[in-house]
Design brief:
The protein is mainly beta and 577 residues long. Helices cover 8% and strands 47% of the residues. A nine-stranded antiparallel beta sheet has the order 21-22-23-24-33-30-29-26-27, with no helix packed on it. It has a seven-stranded mixed beta sheet with strand order 20-19-18-25-32-31-28. The chain has a four-stranded mixed beta sheet with strand order 2-1-4-6, with no helix packed on it.
């Protein structure tokens, strides 16, 4: 780029008064084609010309200057330069020159492309622009081929409204002719006062391996391995775990079920195509870039080679402040525990069983937690959450308890000591100041404490069918009519079924613990019947909630409510192409 010089010409015109012996000097300052505003790091040129008998000095320059010349200055901050002219008798004349310095406009860009059909390509452009002023004009420029026979390129401009974000750019050439491999240049430029003050470009060669097949992705995941489930969903691509990020007291979440919290979504980048996949998801909220990294590691917490198996996953969140101001950033991460088909696994913390909803704060936060399918038999399935080994950053708060309650938590948790069936764990890192341009990283490990191959499955949108079953008070076995209803749906969609969830409930009559066990029996009974129809056990997810969602009125606690004595069977299907 050609460097621009801003020139100040200082001309002194000396006039002599005939009616007095005293010499006087009148000064006139002219600024040719320059503005008094420059970008930090640019040159600023000051030129002067005075009669030979005068000398010139400029603040911040040590030497006395000749009567004619120029000097280059590089102000890093807004300041005033003082020009002092001295005659032979030592009389001085001064002039202040104010220079306003702005931070340079910085543009970061990243392109990703995907083929969305055999006849068209689409590119996703991520951009970050820093240090814009209010009236700056930002535009994107790119060229495309008019058709496969034409080499004429057409410039196209798109006005960008936000300083941080992403856009789709639909490119109109045929992928069938491999023009997607041709180089394309995309340029973002910033204009201030009708002058281009910053620009940046990226070149498109080939696509990164992003999974665009499902559209925007929010990074939700589930885990397991060797047929053993550790989190809800596995091996079904459906997850009920999530994270909540706090930025300056505002919240965003990567699950779409909360109306009053902003929903975050981005795109997944995969490394490897088999075994324990490494997945990175990039999202943006309130001027902060959030990167969720899922990295497979061995039992010593060392990363494993691509396309091999690990025993755990390092679950990492990296926050980068993309603004010029300090941000206060915190995180809540919820894991929906489920060991095999046991939704109320035995949790061991500091050598003790924890069966009630409990919170641990600050130095009381455990280094690790183990959740057992059948304590103490590890081989039947054990989950290991590690918060203070390897590169883990110990959270400020840790909670074990009712998933149904923890799922609804935005940021602050109040455990109630209640016995839980459907279990979850929540890790919280309190909000801390993050200076402009700085990064903050937190992480923990999750997986098997023994040799077992761990797998990760990212959340997907899938088709669902529902069956509702209702029970008489105290009963848990299916009626003949209910079995027929379930069998009909299973047989109709059998070739498409990728998973089944059974959510069983009870009414509020009787004790809480008895109702929890009753709902468990209902879920287990349905699971056994569905298995008898040829559905594999490892894709059936039984969940039981007891009276957690039941009508708790006095009348309902006395007589019960039929609509609370129910089970909902959700059948997940492959989406038809």
């Amino acid at each position: 780029m050609t460097r621009k010089f801003y020139i100040i010409v200082l001309t002194f015109i000396t006039l002599f008064a005939c009616n007095t012996n005293k010499q006087t000097l009148t000064s006139k300052f002219m600024f040719y084609g320059s503005e008094k505003e420059i970008i930090k790091g640019q040159d600023y040129k000051i030129s002067w010309s005075v009669p030979p008998e005068y000398t010139v000095k400029i603040s911040d320059i040590d030497s006395v200057l000749n009567n004619r010349g120029s000097v280059i200055v590089k102000p890093d901050i807004s300041k005033q330069y003082i020009l002092t002219v001295t005659d032979k008798k030592g009389k001085t004349y001064t002039k202040n020159i104010s220079v306003v310095v702005h931070e340079p406009v910085l543009i970061n860009m990243r392109l990703e492309r995907t083929t969305i059909s055999s006849w068209s390509d689409s590119t996703k452009l991520f951009y970050e622009i820093h240090n814009l002023k209010e009236k700056d004009y930002v535009s994107l420029k790119y060229s495309y081929r008019e058709n496969y026979n034409s080499w004429n390129y057409h410039d196209k401009f798109i006005t960008l409204k936000d300083s941080i974000g992403f856009i789709y750019v639909d490119l109109e050439w045929a992928a069938e002719y491999n023009y997607a491999l041709d180089k394309r240049t995309f340029t973002i430029q910033v204009e201030r006062n009708q002058k281009i003050i910053a620009s940046n470009n990226v070149e498109l060669f080939e696509a990164k391996k992003y999974d665009y097949s499902r559209g925007p992705d929010d990074g939700r995941f589930t885990m397991g391995g060797n047929g053993v489930r550790l989190m809800y969903g596995y091996p079904v691509p459906r997850s009920t775990s999530h994270f909540v990020v706090s930025v300056d007291g505002k919240y965003a979440i990567n699950t779409p079920y909360f109306k009053n919290i902003q929903y975050l979504s981005g795109y997944n980048e995969y490394k490897g195509d088999s075994c324990s996949l490494q997945v990175s998801t990039e999202l943006y909220f309130n001027g902060v870039k959030i990167t969720q990294n899922l990295i497979p590691v061995d039992r010593n917490f060392a990363p494993v080679p691509i396309n091999s198996y690990g025993q755990l996953y390092k679950i990492e969140y990296v926050f980068e402040n993309m603004t010029k101001e300090t941000k206060k950033v915190g995180l809540v991460c919820l894991i929906d525990l489920m060991i095999a088909d046991n939704d109320a696994a035995t949790n061991v913390i500091n050598g003790k069983f924890v069966t009630t909803e409990t919170g641990y704060l600050n130095d009381k936060v455990p280094d690790e937690v183990q959740s057992f399918y059948n304590y103490p038999n590890q081989k039947e399935g054990t989950c290991w959450t590690v918060m203070n080994k390897g590169e883990a950053v110990k959270p400020d708060e840790y909670y074990i308890g009712r998933w149904g309650y923890l799922f609804k938590v935005t940021y602050d948790v109040v455990p109630n000591g209640q016995t839980y069936g459907d279990s979850g764990e929540l890790l919280k890192w309190k909000a801390e100041d993050l200076a402009a341009g700085d990064k903050r990283s937190v992480c923990f490990y999750f997986g098997f404490p023994y040799d077992s191959d761990i797998e990760i499955v990212m959340n997907q949108k899938i088709e669902e069918r529902y069956i509702n079953v209702y029970y008489k008070e105290g009963e848990y076995k299916l009626s003949t009519d209910d079995e027929s209803k379930i069998k009909k749906v299973i047989n109709e969609f059998k070739s498409q079924i990728i998973g089944i969830e059974i959510a069983a409930y009870s009414d509020a009559t009787g004790s809480e613990q008895v109702n929890l066990q009753l709902s468990k029996k209902r879920a287990e009974n349905i699971s056994k019947y569905i298995q008898s129809l040829g559905i594999k056990k490892n894709i059936i997810i039984p969940k039981f909630y007891g009276e957690q969602y039941a009508n708790q009125s006095n009348d309902a606690q006395e007589t019960g409510s039929e609509k609370d004595r129910r089970a909902v069977i959700s059948i997940f299907l492959k989406t038809k192409k």
